[in-house]
Design brief:
The complex is a heterodimer of chains A (about 240) and B (about 525). Chain A has about 240 residues and is α/β, with parallel strands linked by helices. Chain A folds into two domains: about 160 residues, Rossmann fold, CATH 3.40.50; about 70 residues. Chain A contains seven helices and ten strands. In chain A, strands 6-7-8-3-9-10 form a six-stranded mixed sheet, sandwiched between helices. In chain A, strand 4 and strand 5 form a beta hairpin. Chain A is globular and about 55 Å long. Classes of the chains: A alpha/beta (about 240), B mainly alpha (about 525).
């Protein structure tokens, strides 16, 4: 279980306080307007932003004393997941050995991860030679070889076409099931995860405003902020 | 593609640009013709062995200077990039900026004042009974002076490139826990290697055509550059044919050097990032702290003492400024620098306008690029080659030294032209690219368009260009010496004379004065542009 309790951040002009629990092995989607605090939430869990108070635990372990690389998680960003002048295989290899001194078995592990995300044989490609979706697959492969139980994704497929986006989310879900991952993913288009997510969380103004099953959240019953968001939010088919 | 007549409203014909083009190409063509004629005459006094040696020595000292400058510059840039919060950082960067814009002859004084026999180092070694002798004159002095200018120049370019790394790389490095060696290998080193060829090319060109440093510190014929040899052949030995051959060689070599630089110089990459600041993750490593401290100390040891020497010895020598020769040199320098700066900027503006008309109005980007090449022709036809050519062409008609002042102004204006053009052309073209269609659709044309669209975007770059152009002209020693006479003495020429007669006190005070003039102009430019001398060179 991932648990955030009173996790607080105080900037001069912006405050956020998060309470949230995500069940082990589930996929939880974060939605909400830009600037509402989804990325801050993810960055705080990943260790890039330091809370002023509150607690953050995963499977009972306190994450707050740990540096970003020590936390039991892998993160996928919308962009800049890969170093542009390293090959796909080398970018994945950084997840196995940050010094990039790879042994034979480790190279096979990379090939296996590439195959797992549907990129078999493309290890020698540079990121610039891959499509946006393929680059995110490489980043997913690296997350796999890092073998961390928690995966954070910050609008990872926002730049992709709707069909491709559905494929990628399906891939994330398959990897979650096969590897027993807990997944927390912020998205622009809630419909994409309607049949997949165990929980959708609506974040706005630095707070978790609503949380529930996809059916509950997408029907937006009884929460004016959520209803307003759905009226203004880009729909999957509209993008 | 382009609707016909769409840009007609923008445009009288760019007459000023065409006139500027004719003027510049005419002058340079005239000088080139002079060199060809004189170089073809039979009176060539000098052996090919001498010329071959001269070229090799020029290239050799430039290569060595470049190598040292790039190594030190890259190390300084890395240390400064990693030490974002080191307390002396802004002082160090300011000192580096000052070092890169000091007039070369002032730097020569400063280096003599620190490393020379009668300088601080000499005093120090003398106190333990060691005589430095004239170790500084020759290759050591040239290398120190060239590295003093160019290591900070290289460091600044490298630092800017390192700072422009996609900030998200640091987030990723932090997320993956990359160790410092990997960070250097996959983030810093590719940036340094990408920038190095362009920076090396520019530094090499500056050192290869170096004049003041080599003239004052070369120690006679042993170590020289073509630029100095042209000067000496013409002014001291009246060897027109040899000067012409050297000048033509200089042109050929500069062209050969500039062609690859042109292709190497990359446009800065635009990286899209979230705007969030992610800090470098290798700041807190103990061994790197020690390494960086060592690098910064070494850099400071090279850059700071000469600057302090100008300040302290200059202040001590202030009484020496009360001298009619100094007063006259000030007026002479201003009488040359101000018109040269203004003419250089005006030519740049005219060419930039023509270039824009060609690029946007006539959709002829190649022609526009060609206009840009005319603006930087002086980098190929070096100031001394141009001066020599003009000297040879004018000599049958008039004694060139009797019209020294206008000739110095003219050549200095052409020398400032590339720098002024670099300030003016981008915003002028941008104004049309960004707002041209909007202005057309609103029917804004003619002077209204200049007033509402071009002028607001151009005002600052224009003033910056004028300040830089004047500052560069004020620092010129070569052309002012070439066409100068006993009556026509600028501040750099005066400093050179004082150094030559070992009058260090007076040299110090005039150096300080000239530094303050030049720095004042650059500071004014900075406060107008917000971005210091970053675009000056």
């Amino acid at each position: 279980m991932l648990a955030l309790a009173d996790l607080t951040i105080d900037y001069a002009d912006w405050h956020a306080r998060y309470d949230l629990t995500v069940a082990q092995g589930s996929l939880c989607a974060l939605i909400g307007p830009s600037g509402g605090g989804k990325t801050t939430l993810l960055h705080m869990i990943a260790g890039f932003v330091h809370p002023s108070s509150g607690s953050l635990t995963f499977e009972g372990e306190d994450l707050l004393p740990l540096g970003p690389a020590e936390r039991p998680l892998s993160m996928l960003f919308q962009e800049h997941n890969l170093f542009p002048h390293l090959t796909a295989a080398e970018n994945i290899g950084l997840g196995i050995d940050p010094r990039l001194r790879l042994t034979g078995p480790q190279r096979m592990q990379i090939d296996a991860a590439l195959a797992e995300v549907g990129l078999a044989g493309l290890g020698k490609r540079m990121p610039g030679e891959l499509s946006g979706g393929q680059r995110q697959r490489v980043a997913l492969a690296r997350a796999l070889v890092r073998k961390r139980p928690l995966m954070l994704l910050d609008e990872p497929f926002g730049g992709l076409d709707p069909g491709l986006r559905a494929d990628m989310i399906g891939l994330v879900d398959r990897l979650r099931k096969e590897n027993g991952l807990t997944v927390l993913m912020s998205i622009h288009t809630p419909e994409d995860v309607a049949g997949i997510a165990g929980m959708i969380v609506f974040v706005d103004e630095g707070r978790v405003q609503a949380a529930g099953t996809p059916a509950e959240i997408l029907s937006a019953t009884g929460n004016p902020a959520l209803a307003r968001y759905f009226r203004s939010a880009p729909r999957a088919e509209g993008q | 593609m382009t609707p016909t007549g769409r840009h007609r409203s923008a445009a009288p014909t760019g007459v000023a640009g065409i006139l500027a083009l004719i003027l510049i190409v005419g002058i340079i063509g005239l000088a080139f013709a002079g060199l060809m004629i004189a170089g073809g005459t039979s009176g060539f006094g000098g052996s090919w062995g001498y010329i071959r040696r001269l070229v090799l020595v020029s290239l050799g000292q430039a290569a060595l200077s470049t190598l040292l400058s790039l190594i030190l510059g890259a190390a300084l840039a890395l240390a400064l990039a990693r030490r974002e919060r080191f307390p002396g950082r802004s002082l160090m960067i300011a000192a580096m900026n000052v070092a890169t814009v000091l007039p070369p002859i002032v730097a020569v004084f400063a280096i003599v004042a620190v490393f020379g026999r009668s300088g601080w180092l000499g005093d120090l070694t003398a106190s333990v009974g060691l005589d430095l002798g004239s170790w500084l004159y020759g290759l050591p002095g040239i290398l120190i002076a060239h590295v003093f200018f160019n290591a900070p120049l290289a460091a600044r370019s490298f630092l800017a490139a390192l700072a422009s790394v996609t900030p998200e790389h640091w987030r990723l490095a932090s997320h993956l826990g990359l160790p410092p060696a990997t960070i250097f290998r996959i983030i810093d080193r590719p940036v340094l290697l990408r920038e190095a060829p362009g920076i090396a090319g520019i530094v090499f060109l500056l050192c290869f055509t170096s004049f003041a440093v080599v003239l004052a510190l070369g120690g006679g014929p042993n170590v020289s550059t073509l630029e100095v040899a042209i000067f000496e052949a013409l002014r001291f030995e009246a060897e027109f044919a040899r000067a012409a051959i050297l000048a033509l060689l200089q042109i050929v070599i500069c062209l050969a050097l500039l062609l690859p630089i042109g292709t190497l110089a990359r446009r800065p990459q635009q990286t899209v990032s979230s705007g969030v600041i992610f800090r470098r993750t290798d700041r807190d490593i103990r061994s790197l702290r020690i390494l960086d401290a060592f690098i910064l100390l070494a850099g400071a040891a090279l850059i700071m003492p000469p600057l302090l020497a100008i300040l302290f010895r200059g202040i001590a020598g202030i009484p020496a400024l009360v001298d009619p020769n100094v007063t006259r040199a000030i007026w002479t320098s201003l009488a040359i620098g101000i018109p040269a700066g203004l003419i250089g900027t005006a030519l740049a503006l005219a060419l930039a306008d023509l270039s824009r008309r060609l690029r946007i109005g006539a959709a002829a980007p190649r022609a526009a690029d060609a206009v840009g090449l005319v603006a930087i022709m002086i980098l190929v036809v070096s100031p001394m080659a141009l001066s020599a050519g003009l000297f040879i062409m004018l000599r049958p008609v008039i004694n060139p030294l009797s019209v020294g002042l206008p000739l110095i102004v003219l050549v200095n204006a052409l020398m400032a032209l590339p720098f002024a053009y670099r300030q003016i052309e981008p915003p002028l073209t941008l104004a049309a690219e960004r707002y041209g269609s909007l202005a057309d659709s609103l029917g804004i044309g003619g002077m209204t368009r200049v007033r509402l669209i071009d002028w607001p975007l151009l005002r600052r770059p224009l003033i910056v260009a004028i300040a830089i152009a004047i500052a560069l002209s004020l620092g010129d020693l070569g052309v002012a010496s070439f066409f100068g006479t006993g009556d026509l003495v600028t501040l750099p020429v005066l400093i050179h004379r004082l150094l030559g007669t070992y009058r260090m006190e007076e040299a110090a005070s005039v150096s300080l004065l000239l530094s303050l003039l030049v720095l004042g102009l650059f500071l004014a430019a900075q406060s107008w542009s917000g971005d210091w001398i970053a675009r000056a060179r």
